[in-house]
Amino acid sequence: MTEVGVKKTTGKRKVGDGTPGPGRPKGVPNKTTTMLKDAILQAATKAGGKDGLIGYLVTQATANPQSFLPLLGKVLPMQVTGEDGGPIKVTRIELVGVSPE
User: Fold this and answer.
1) What number of other Cβ atoms are within 10 A of residue 83's Cβ?
2) d(CA 8, CA 81)
3) What is the C-alpha to C-alpha distance for residues 69 and 61, in angstroms, rounded to an integer?
4) Confidence of residue 61 (pLDDT cuts 50, 70, 90)
5) Residue 92 covered by a domain
6) Is 21 helix (H, G, I), strand (E, B) or coil?
């Protein structure tokens, strides 16, 4: 039995033959996504007034910390390294006693 809606290809694609094209090259962002990101940044810049995007982000950090804090996790480095990319060297550990009063 032949499946309905399945086209057999000969391996040679032609424009308009109903087979999918090569698609977007690897690494090239989707145009719609890029346009949407640009629009969001422009809107946030306008909403920030004279301080622009930074002003908007400061306002959101204060007004909505539960939404703003996850953004920090996306922009902070995933791994902290020491000098010249080496491991962090702990040179001193100090224990300070605090009275419970």
Assistant:
1) 8
2) 55
3) 7
4) very high
5) no
6) coil
From 23-27, 42-46, 58-62, the region with the lowest mean pLDDT: 23-27
For residue 61, what are the domain limits?
50-77
The tokens describing 89, both together, are 């060297």
Q: d(Cα 14, Cα 20) in Å, to the nearest integer?
A: 10
SS (H, E, C) the chain: CCCCCCCCCCCCCCCCCCCCCCCCCCCCCCHHHHHHHHHHHHHHHHHCHHHHHHHHHHHHHHHCHHHHHHHHHHHCCCCCCCHHHCCCCCCCCCCCCCCCC
Number of structural domains (the chain) is 1
Predicted model pTM: 0.49
* Amino acid (one-letter) located at 18: G
CA 59 – CA 65 distance, rounded (Å): 10
